[in-house]
Amino acid sequence: MNLAQAIVGAPGARQRRAIAKAITLLESTRGDHRAQADELLTELLPHTGKAFRLGISGVPGVGKSTFIEALGLYLIAQGHRVAVLAIDPSSTVSGGSILGDKTRMEHLSVHAQAYIRPSPSSGTLGGVAAKTRESMLVCEAAGYDVVIVETVGVGQSETAVAGMTDMFVLMQLPNAGDDLQAIKKGVMELADLVVINKADLDPDAATRARAQITSALRILGQHGNPDHAHHDATLWHPQVLQLSALKVQGVEAFWQAVGEFRRLQEAGGRLQSRRKHQALAWMWERIDSGLKRAFRQAPAVKALLPQLTNEVEHGLLAASTAARRLLDAMHEGTRGGPSAN
Amino acid sequence: MNLAQAIVGAPGARQRRAIAKAITLLESTRGDHRAQADELLTELLPHTGKAFRLGISGVPGVGKSTFIEALGLYLIAQGHRVAVLAIDPSSTVSGGSILGDKTRMEHLSVHAQAYIRPSPSSGTLGGVAAKTRESMLVCEAAGYDVVIVETVGVGQSETAVAGMTDMFVLMQLPNAGDDLQAIKKGVMELADLVVINKADLDPDAATRARAQITSALRILGQHGNPDHAHHDATLWHPQVLQLSALKVQGVEAFWQAVGEFRRLQEAGGRLQSRRKHQALAWMWERIDSGLKRAFRQAPAVKALLPQLTNEVEHGLLAASTAARRLLDAMHEGTRGGPSAN
């Protein structure tokens, strides 16, 4: 039976196996698998795009799993089907993975209306992100109408998640300084919504954190992102919510805020333009990544790189001269003749 | 007479003309000029590296020119020779340039011991930065022992300047929120020293700003940059100074702080490792830029790109599939045969 048909077909064990098989195919590095995966994606694409894509980021310990479990079960009770994917760049080093331990979401992970997939555990961040985007499309084609992409606050993974979701949520603890870290990493700026978790443990600290983050969002919004411009009632202004994932307090208010965001984004045509922009950015990111890989694998480059690197490090060769020599060498090697420039 | 010899030769009108000629050559886009420029750089390189490279960044109106004029004249009085270069990405759009109006530094610009060069007014930020780096090497070979690279707070230009200098100074106004903007842009994190200018206009605001920035630097330094680690007496901790460039107050204290930073960096071997790291990063940045240019100029890519872009935008083709097709097309076009993958 055709894999694409099984994916877009009726929910159940067969669909679930087909999804798993498709994602394994997407994550394979074999050339023939890659060709099959491309074919599959092209078949599935007309069935994608109807889900709401929700990104959730936060440092380890902030309570992401607890929150996603509570949110996922709430959404399923409302009639949704929920897929949860993860991007964890550190798993490519450790071999481990967030979500790898499914007991972290013990009820959601066994639910028939949920699909949970851990982070790919090999590849660069760009590669991991690409596989997760593609897995997201598979889940959408299978009719999951809420796709949650989770990431820990490591490196550039938040940017990758914000770049593939309709709404990006930052989870924070009510600790002083956490907001500055998020601002520094450029993550606060990406947030459509900030959630302060564990607000029940220290209500005063949570209130202070909320005031600080609200003020920071206002100041950050004054420059830069035109989406945050004022005097336009159709525009969303980033909000700060307090909740307790453990006590399942605030989940409904959270989903209401998501709904309001979604309504404004769709009404303003910004949902579609955000997705277009994301798809093109993704294409260019993959192109850049492919160009770099081809460069590093070119025999002429492999032969020259160690020596030129050494000369640049020791100040014997200008870096820009070394770059030009390497580029010329690659083009000569590829063309089998002298370089045009 | 040989250009390189004139540059490393005695200071004076001839040297000044040779520098100008060399920089014009570096900024040329003609292929034969580029080859000559590479030759020249290789000749000059053994004479470079002895200057202290100081980066200064700040938003328009912060008083950079006034400060650099005051600092430059102070340094010349101490026996230094001072070169001032600029990176202004906006000049590539407007055709204008910071430093273009030399009357902004009316005394420094006419001084025999100073060399001032405006920002290259064409090219990408990467290209502009590369030319400025090369110009910096020319100035060093000519015996300028303090090279100041100035930039306005636009786009990624601060990162470029921090990536080519030994010390990166951020100029701020004593306004609430300015520090958050700098943190957001990742510039605060790059700063080895923060200067609050116009401190005399509102001493209370300046004191508040200093306390806020000091606190932010401390919090930001707790994570990330190992150079900011504590419990090591040879390590520099980013400082915050108040000054008034207009009244020439605080310039000497500024230069003392620079000297202390330089002493610690040299003693710890960090100056050399920073420069090595910068040179390699520059090489890779130029390689990436060259790869992208070659991709965009490839006939097969030019032929396919509009259609594939359109299909990706409209959700008819997965972005990663489009990327692979374009990369394959480029390689086939170059090799004159079918792609290996």
TrEMBL record, chains A, B:
<dbReference type="InterPro" id="IPR027417">
    <property type="entry name" value="P-loop_NTPase"/>
</dbReference>
<dbReference type="GO" id="GO:0003924">
    <property type="term" value="F:GTPase activity"/>
</dbReference>
<comment type="similarity">
    <text>Belongs to the SIMIBI class G3E GTPase family. ArgK/MeaB subfamily.</text>
</comment>
<dbReference type="InterPro" id="IPR003593">
    <property type="entry name" value="AAA+_ATPase"/>
</dbReference>
<dbReference type="Pfam" id="PF03308">
    <property type="entry name" value="MeaB"/>
</dbReference>
<dbReference type="InterPro" id="IPR005129">
    <property type="entry name" value="GTPase_ArgK"/>
</dbReference>
<protein>
    <submittedName>
        <fullName>Methylmalonyl Co-A mutase-associated GTPase MeaB</fullName>
        <ecNumber>3.6.5.-</ecNumber>
    </submittedName>
</protein>
<dbReference type="GO" id="GO:0005525">
    <property type="term" value="F:GTP binding"/>
</dbReference>
<dbReference type="GO" id="GO:0005737">
    <property type="term" value="C:cytoplasm"/>
</dbReference>
<keyword id="KW-0378">Hydrolase</keyword>
<feature type="domain" description="AAA+ ATPase">
    <location>
        <begin position="50"/>
        <end position="220"/>
    </location>
</feature>
